[in-house]
Amino acid sequence: MSNEIPDTMRQLRIIAPGETTWEVAPTPRPAAGEVLVKVTGISSCPHWDLHILGGEPMFPGQQLDYPYFPGKPGHEAVGIVVARGDGVTDLSVGQTVVAWRDAGTNRPGFYAQFNAFPAEYLLPVPTELPAAQLASLELAMCVEVSFQRLAMLGGVKGKRVGIAGLGPAGLVALQLARYHGAAEVVGIDRVASRRELALNVGASETVDSDEGLWAANRGNDQALDMAIDCTGVPPAVKFLLHRTKEAVALFGVVRGEIPYDGALMWGPGVTLLGYGDHNRLAAETALSAIAAAQLDLGVLISATLPLSDYVSGVEMLRTQQAIKVLFDPWA
C-alpha cells in the first residue's frame, strides 16, 4: 500500500437512517497540532453504529441531524502517519499509530481512507501487530477508566469480580480484570454463545443473569466483591447491586432509572459508581496489557469487510452475527 497522498480519497457518509454513500472527497491536510493518518483499519463500535445508522441519537435527548458528519461515527482506528501539521514533534511520518480518544462529533471521523487527527489523541504502536489487535484500543481505554474508578476503592486485585454484559466492552473488561490481578472473574450474560466466548478470554465462570438461577445474596461465597456493568440496562445493574459486596461501576450508557434499595446501604453498603473521564493513562495501560499478551482485542473481530460494505457490517452487529467488524477502507 503506497503512502503517497492523493488529491482525493473515499469516505463513508451516513446521509439518512439506513442509507450511506461511499463518496469521493478532497484528501484533508493536517492543521497545526494534527497529523494526517492513512487509515489501515477501523473497528465498528456497535452502540454508535447501530444508533446513528438506525436513526437514534447515541445519548438520550441529543439532536441527530443528517447527513451525518463524514467519516463518523468511526473512531476506533489504526493507521500510518503520512504528514504532520505545524508543531507536531512526538510523531513521525511512517509511524503506525492508533487513536485512543474520539476527538469530538463536529469533525470528520475515521470511516475514510485518510483522516487529519489531533496528534495528542494518537499513540505509536508496534508495526508487527495486526490492525485487528489494535483498532479497538479506544474501547479498551474507555473500559480501563472503570477500573480506575474501582481503584479509588481499593481495586480488583485478589477479588472476585463480576462483568455484566459480554459484548465487546464486557470481553475487554474480563481481560483487564485479569490483568489487574482479580482472583476470579465472573461473566454474566443471557446469551450462551457470549458466555462461551468469555470462558475463552479469561472468565473463571459464567452465569445467566436469570434471577431464578442466582438468588440475590450479598453475604455468601457466591457474592461478588466488585463488578462492572457493561449493559446500561437498569435490571442488569440491579442484579449486580444485590449480589455485590463492595462496589458496582457503571460503564454501559444508562437508559433508565436505577433503583437503589435501602437494604443495600448496610452490611456494609455497596457503592454505585458513575463513569470517569477518558484519559491517556487509561489508554497507555490498555496498550501495556496488549504488549504483555494479556489483552487480545483481536477476539472481538468476527469479520473483516470493505468499508464500502458498511451497511452489511452493521446488519451483522444488529443480528448478533458479529461482535465487532473490522472495516478496510482500501478493499
How would you explain this protein's 3D organization?
The chain is α/β, with parallel strands linked by helices and 331 residues long. It folds into 2 domains: 8-135 and 296-328, Medium-chain alcohol dehydrogenases, catalytic domain (Quinone Oxidoreductase, Chain A, domain 1, Alpha-Beta Complex); 140-273, NAD(P)-binding Rossmann-like Domain (Rossmann fold, 3-Layer(aba) Sandwich). Helices cover 24% and strands 27% of the residues. Strands 3, 4, 5, 6, 7, 14 and 15 form a 7-stranded mixed beta sheet that branches. Strands 10-9-8-11-12-13 form a 6-stranded parallel beta sheet, sandwiched between helices. Strands 1-2 form a two-stranded antiparallel sheet. Helix 1 crosses helix 8. The protein is globular. The mean pLDDT is 95. It comes from Synoicihabitans lomoniglobus.
Label this structure with key terms.
single chain; alpha/beta; Quinone Oxidoreductase, Chain A, domain 1; Rossmann fold
Summarize the structure.
This protein is α/β, with parallel strands linked by helices.
Range of strand content? 25-35%
CATH topology of the largest domain: Quinone Oxidoreductase, Chain A, domain 1
Shape: globular
Q: How many individual β-strands?
A: 15
Radius of gyration (CA) equals 20 Å
Number of helices: 8
Name the structural class: alpha/beta
What is the residue-mean pLDDT, rounded to a whole number?
95
Could you give the order of the helices and strands?
EEEHEEEEHHEHEHEEHEEHEHE
Low-confidence stretches: none
Please identify, by name, the CATH architecture of the largest domain: Alpha-Beta Complex
Largest sheet: 7 strands, mixed
Query: CATH homologous superfamily of the largest domain - what is it?
Result: Medium-chain alcohol dehydrogenases, catalytic domain
Please report the distance between the alpha carbons of the first and last residues.
Answer: 11 Å
Helix content: 10-25%
The CATH class of the largest domain, by name, is Alpha Beta
